[in-house]
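Lab meeting, item 3. Inverse folding demo.
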């Protein structure tokens, strides 16, 4: 799983129906998703996950967790920043609009049931299924600086399956590139049912739009490329990053016409600028009616509409650690209640001993 790649689930009810799944008549009630605390969140993370979460919390019962155990799958050698990353992630979530009065927010490692179900599912998951996971091979080749030949990295899809199945999910909100990961969870669920009988739903994909945000250098926005605008950046730093962004390389002078399709700045306008304004910028660029600096200033203003209020909320929260602890504690209690119900069902199906074994 990518360091900040979200994954989630939605469970069935009779109240609300999804609009983005192949099974359009299957209703959803509960959403669960998590992100690894591998560093500061950037605008790509916001557009890929948090923006959707903030909208979903007003419509469904939502569980959102900081996936700190998953962060260890690729960053186990250096955990010195893990606690700071967890705190900063929580700051960003709350500052951007996740509301603990509307959704449940918790830390993965605070709900030990994730680990127990991971162990039980690991007992039945063939190693061959894990070895054929494309991410396992790809990241070993791409991340040469770390030794990823570990049990934890090979088995992280089992932990992901535990995260999803633990809340009895029917749907998982994913982008198209995440479908292979979900299919492995579905296979594990089917094997569980084959061996012990049905005890949890087999999750289906809930396809969600995940716009690809280009970074400062024209590549995908990613911490590994050092090309990000971070949620916690100051207004001055945001402008400095936008001011020095590359544009259409063929537009050398102000009077040269440009091609917005080749410009990373215009790519960001696609997510942060309204349709009518984008049309004007597109035309102005192609006819040299607008300069790159003016285009960048418009983008700055639109991004600041998101980041300036978040910056103020974050400043207020940084002085109230007691409140932040209480949010995670209350969230863990709510999550444990649902997780406990699921584990009871699975233990019964597997004929594992409960406390009443001897009367």
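The presenter then showed the designed sequence:
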């Amino acid at each position: 799983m990518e360091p900040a790649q979200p994954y989630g689930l939605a469970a069935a009810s009779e109240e609300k129906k999804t609009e983005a799944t192949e099974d359009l008549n299957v209703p959803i009630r509960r959403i669960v998703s998590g992100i690894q605390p591998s560093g500061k969140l950037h605008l790509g993370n916001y557009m890929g996950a948090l923006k959707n979460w903030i909208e979903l919390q007003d419509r469904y019962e939502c569980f959102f967790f900081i996936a700190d155990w998953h962060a260890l799958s690729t960053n186990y050698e250096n955990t010195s920043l893990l606690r700071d990353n967890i705190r900063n992630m929580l700051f960003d979530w709350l500052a951007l609009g996740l509301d603990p009065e509307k959704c449940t927010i918790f830390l993965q490692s605070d709900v030990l049931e994730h680990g127990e179900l991971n162990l039980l599912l690991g007992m039945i998951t063939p190693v061959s299924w894990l070895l054929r996971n494309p991410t396992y091979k790809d990241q070993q080749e791409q991340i040469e600086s770390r030794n990823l030949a570990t049990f934890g990295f090979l088995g992280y899809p089992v932990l992901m399956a535990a995260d999803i199945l633990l809340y009895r999910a029917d749907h998982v909100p994913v982008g198209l590139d995440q479908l292979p990961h979900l299919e492995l969870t579905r296979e594990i669920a089917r094997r569980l049912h084959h061996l012990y009988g049905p005890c949890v739903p087999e999750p289906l994909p809930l396809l969600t739009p995940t716009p690809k945000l280009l970074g400062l250098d024209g590549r995908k926005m990613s911490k590994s490329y050092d090309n990000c605008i971070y949620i916690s950046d100051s207004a001055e730093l945001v402008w400095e990053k936008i001011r020095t962004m590359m544009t259409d390389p063929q537009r050398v002078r102000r009077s040269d016409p440009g091609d917005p399709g080749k410009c990373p700045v215009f790519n960001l306008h696609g997510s942060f600028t309204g349709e009518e304004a984008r049309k004007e910028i597109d035309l102005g660029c192609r006819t040299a009616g607008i300069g790159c600096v003016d285009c960048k200033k418009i983008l700055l203003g639109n991004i600041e509409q998101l980041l300036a209020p978040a910056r103020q909320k974050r400043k207020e929260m940084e002085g109230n650690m007691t409140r932040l602890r209480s949010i995670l504690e209350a969230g863990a209690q709510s999550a444990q209640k649902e997780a406990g119900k699921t584990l009871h069902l699975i233990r019964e199906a597997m004929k594992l001993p409960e406390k009443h074994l001897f009367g």
